[in-house]
Amino acid sequence: MPTVVISKNIHVGPGKEHRSIRAALLSAKDGDTIFVYHSLYKEGNIIINKKITMIGVDYPVIDGDKKFEVVSIKSDNVIFRGFQVQNSGYGSLNDLGGIKVYDAGNIIIENNILENNFFSIYINFGKNILIKNNKIRAYGIEEQQIGNGIHCWKSDSLQIIGNHIQGHRDGIYFEFVTHSIIWRNVSRFNIRYGLHFMFSNDDAYINNVFDGNGAGVAVMYTKKVTMYNNTFKNSTGDASYGILLKEISDAEIVGNRFLSNTSALFLEGANRIMIKKNVFLNNGWGLKIQANCMENVISQNNFIGNTFDVSTNGSLVLNKFDKNYWDKYEGYDLDKDMYGDIPFHPLNVYSFIIENNPIAMLLFRSFMVTLLEKTEKLIPSITPEDFRDDHPLLKAYSL
Amino acid sequence: MIEINNLTKKFGKTTALRKVNLTLTSGTCVGLIGPNACGKTTLIKNILSMVVPTEGEIFFDGKNIHGDVFYKNNIGYMPQIGRYPENMSVRQVIQMIKNIRNHQGTEDKELFEAFEMEKIADKKMRTLSGGTTQKVSATLAFLFNPPVLILDEPTAGLDPIASEILRVKIIKEREKGKLILITSHLLSELDDLLTNIVFMQESVVVFNKTMEDLFAETGENRVSRAIHKLLKTGVLS
Amino acid sequence: MKGITTFIIKDILKNRIVILYTLILCGFSWSIFSLEDNVSKGILSLLNIILLIVPLVSVIFANIYMYNSTEFIELLVSQPVKRSSIWYAMFTGLAVALNAAFLIGIGIPVLLFIHPLTALVVILAGVLLTTIFVSVAMLCFILMRDKAKGIGLSIMLWLFLSLMYDGLVLFFMFQFADYPIEKIMVLLTAINPVDLARIQVLLQIDVAALMGYTGAIFKKLFGTQTGYFTSFIFMLVWIVVPYFFSLRLFKNKDL
After folding, report:
1. Which of A125, A149, B159, C156 gives a 20 to 30 Å CA spacing to A215?
2. Are the C-beta atoms of B231 and B223 separated by less than 8 Å?
3. Who among A285, A356, A368 is closest to C209 (CB)?
4. B65 touches chain C (CB under 8 A)
């Protein structure tokens, strides 16, 4: 027996059938569409618990008055589009969100502006959720007093596409999120990480830009992550990284650009990672590989203008460097096979010294230090001899 | 014009001048003579503040020269060996000294013309011979018509013709009532020039006489002979 | 004395060594930037020239020029010119002429090829080093009457400041690595003008790496506006102190 669902349109706004969103929601039934016209709506916590479509016309402003969670979505099949959501409450116990999804699926949150919320978009036990083209902005100063831009917890099959996030603690935060894609987002000037994820397997990060975040991107305790064509830049400072990989395995990091970070890519306990066709440009350190990393392949990358291309804290070499372009390589290619005839040792002895005596940076590039480096390059005594790229490319890849 | 009181100059342990007292007046041409290393050049350099006195004072026109530089506007100085910036032309050097002295009155271009400086005016200083360089020095010393002229071995290195030109010029300037101080080894040159002789030996002024007195005392009429005679008779030692 | 200064500047600019110096710098920097498409590598090669060659040429040339000008200085002293004016003219003449050589040889290509702010720092470093080593050369001249000794002393000073000093500091650092030596290290590097110049350029090309360093004193002294200003003052001291010291000696020098 098929049921015919007759959906109706409900209008909210000055001079419309409803003056408040709450009233409209109360009268709505599953399948209805609510049009909200431009005005300021201060109605405390708005709870959407029906399968409805909410459409803002000319960005109506929903204000949480710094006390409430602004919009709570507690039903499946909700579309929330075209609103400005602002001034959510701040809670040290509850994670109040601008838009928060509770245990729901098939939801679209699209084209919204989120201003000055504690957490902007918060997905709690979500499934099949599309978060697209939202502009998210907060003004956090201290890590403890601000939440994340897009915060996802124990969710699955999320698509986070084309959002702009700035000024939060972490731009995008994943914990126990699987089978999700993060595509074409811009995450800038967040206090801690542009992207932070833990225990989130089988996710892909493609074409995102992470710029000027306190500590860049942190990827921890995760398997099977794919990171393609992202840009990581301007993460500078003590313990700042383009990407920090911690306890990661079987990941692919391909085609990314690392620009002007203190450390572009930091690997700790990372195994079987393919680092390929990335550009490391003008970073303090290109790769920092801790000694507990194994079976990683670093191949066909460009290392250009970095202060130090690679550094490590041990003498064991369990990773493979091959066919990269190193601008510091000074060899020749007499047999014209495109690769230098002698191997390149990417480890700079002085980066060893700086690791132990940071103040030694003061003397970097002085005559004595350059002499020391050249000597070490000719006759390796401190750096491991087999830490090398046997096929250093003579001309940079066009990446 | 120039009054030197009790002037002592020591270079380290050696004493170049010991308690020198000397008054030089306008209208005289003073020959400062004596054996090598007797302190002639040091005395001149003191007058020009090129060395700093250890003791004593020098007055120029009644004013202490210590800390002053403008009195040098009244002095034309021709050094023993004049050396100049190598890459500058003669004209540039002259122009530079003109700039420095900022001379207001008329310029005395007699030597400039007599030495035919115009012909070499565009040559670089480094290409000039020692004699030609001396001509430049002489030209510069006389150029600003100063009331005092100090000439250190003026004829050394000059050819006979140039020497003669310079002699005539010195006499001419003496007649104008200027004070002229000359050092020279070649005593024979000095005969018609000098009105006074200052003889120095071993850092002290031994005598300061007019030519008339000197000739009268020695019965000679040539400077060189007169000095020799004095030396022989032991008057000086 | 404006007149003398101009004359000296012209004289030095016509000097074959200075012309050669300009041409060599020119050749270096143009070839570095036109052959090397990697700009930061270019700056690095240039840095070595600025830290080693520029001070060396400046100190030796200025020193020899002073000795060769002995008679000229004598001539000037015999003229109605204050000794301080003569000294000032010699200093200005040398500094302006050598800096002109530096600016033509390195300044112009640097401005054309690299980021304006970095270019400015590189140029300022070179100009300050040139001027400092002119000042040092004049001090060596006045301290040593003998030309060979004077040139020897200036080369020794260059050798010490440009090459050996960092070795000694490095040695010191290794010896006392277990102690809190940050303050002393910063102070030690701030004393040496060559190190200051190097660190200023370092702050341009290795800024990402330097940001990773947590040392508070280092950041305070080098990373900020005040830091730039302090470094600048330290380098000015290197110009002013040798200059006035040598001037005092010159005022009482017997020529």
Report:
1. A125
2. no
3. A285
4. no
Q: What is the pLDDT of residues A295-330, one digit of tens each?
A: 999 999 999 989 999 988 877 778 999 999 999 888
Q: How far does C253 lie from chain B, in Å, by closest CA?
A: 7
Show Cβ contacts of residue B168 under 8 Å, excluding neighbours closer than 6 positions: none
- Written as tens digits, the pLDDT of chain A (399 aa) is 556 667 889 999 998 889 999 999 999 999 999 999 999 999 999 999 999 999 999 999 999 999 999 999 999 999 999 999 999 998 777 888 999 999 999 999 999 999 999 999 999 999 999 999 999 999 988 878 889 999 999 999 999 999 999 999 999 999 999 999 999 999 999 999 999 989 999 999 999 999 999 888 898 999 999 999 999 999 988 888 999 999 999 999 999 999 999 999 999 999 999 999 999 999 999 999 998 999 999 999 999 989 999 988 877 778 999 999 999 888 888 988 889 999 998 888 888 888 888 888 888 889 989 888 888 877 777 778 778 899 999 988 988
**Cα→Cα distances C227→B132, C186, C219, C233, Å:** 57, 12, 8, 10
- For residue B146, the chain C residues in CB contact (below 8 A) are none
User: What topology is assigned to A31-214 in CATH?
Assistant: Pectate Lyase C-like (2.160.20)
CB contact (8 A) between residue A359 and residue C209: no
Return the axis-axis angle of helices C83-102 and C225-251, rounded to nearest 10°: 140
Nearest residue to A148 via CA among A78, A197, A219, A209 = A197
CB distance from A364 to chain C under 8 Å? yes
Number of domains chain B is built from: 1
SS3 B219: coil
Decide: pTM greater than 0.90.
no
Q: Which residue of C has its CA nearest to A361?
A: C210
Residues 2-21 of C with CB under 8 A from B: 3-4, 7-8, 10-11, 14-15
Domain boundaries, chain A: 31-214
Phi, psi (degrees; rounded to nearest 5) at A327: -70, -15
Task: Kindly report the nearest CA distance between residue C182 and chain A, in angstroms.
Answer: 6
Domain holding B181: CATH number? Answer: 3.40.50.300
The interface pTM score, or ipTM, of the predicted complex is 0.85
Contact of A14 with chain C, judged by CB distance below 8 Å, is answered with no
